Amino acid sequence: MLKGKKRYVLILDDVWKEISLEEVGITEPTVMDGCKLVLTTHPMEVARSMGCEEIKVEPLSEMEAFDLFLSKVGSELLDIPTLQSTLKQTVKQCDGLPLAIVTLANTMKGERDVHIWENALNELKACIASVENVVEKSRKAMYKKGHANLKRLERNCLLERDDGNCVKMHDLMRAMALYITRQSHRYLVRFLMTLSLLS
Fold this sequence. Notes:
mainly alpha; 2 domains; two-stranded antiparallel ribbon
């Protein structure tokens, strides 16, 4: 497709290692063809190894990062006292990178549940840790992740909340789940019965 274009700007975002443009099928841009290649990367060695001109983008300060985040996610979240610390820690994980901050804000916009924010913070930390080859697990983190997944299922009407602290699957959803599992032998379905004795 690019061979048919006389002039273009191609952006390769978040590149972590040197890649061969020829192997990917990209004609190397030159001054003569008027084409441009923009590469974003964290390791400067990648830009150097690919012969790119280095332009260092300075990250935002903590205050600038938090202001940008609030302008996108909504400053009303600051009205929740138990959430303020988690918000600041979450934004800090973005390391002052505007694109990461805006993406995070758009993903979490309108979310007011503290557990879901804490789970998002844990997932960000885990993502960064996995890049650095560090693995961290804890029972508390797993609880927060489970709570966040449970909330998503509720919001998508896949689970219903009872009067108390219990959730249940709608009969129609349960029937559909059983139908799907019958199509494959990879699933094991167990039926659990709870008996209540009335005095």
